[in-house]
Amino acid sequence: MATGLSLEIAAAAARLVVDEGLEYPAAKRKAARDLGRRGGRQGELPSNEEVEDAVREYLAVFCADTQPAELLALRNVALRWMERLADFRPHLGGAVWRGTATQLSNIVIDLYCDDPKSAEIAFLNQGLDFDSGSDDPDTVILSTVDRSRDLPEPVTLHFVVHDHDELRGALRPDSRGRTWRGDAPALRRLLDGATA
Question: How confident is the model at residue 31, as a pLDDT?
């Protein structure tokens, strides 16, 4: 059950997510600090689902005229890359999958590889300009930039490389039964619904 403080932090975090492009964890911590709660104690910080609800409310009030087109453009970029990297079982995650993305959002695509180095080798073989790195030594993230004719700024894509065996656990739904990520056919269904 969300407390008043938790909901207040969620609302402040939602503004940071939409207006500044912060990811949920960073937005929650910054919102808590801005509200005088030094990082927030356990139980004060809202869940990701609560922040997502607040983001949806914020988008409905302040971005209803622009966000659907931005989301559609980002999903089209994601699908193009997922088709390009189909050998690595790509699954779209984050705000682009969940439907809360704006033009400031990064595209996050999980790659499930038999050999984790194979994705990086494929990027090199395709002549892609990318960065490789992560704050976590056990996680490889390949990052690149692409353009969409429907967005004014370049789009940043992060490809999180996982072992193939991690795919099964990655498909578990959230507490409300919604998936955290989806494959290319699932994304096409979302796109077909958006253009129908």
Answer: 95
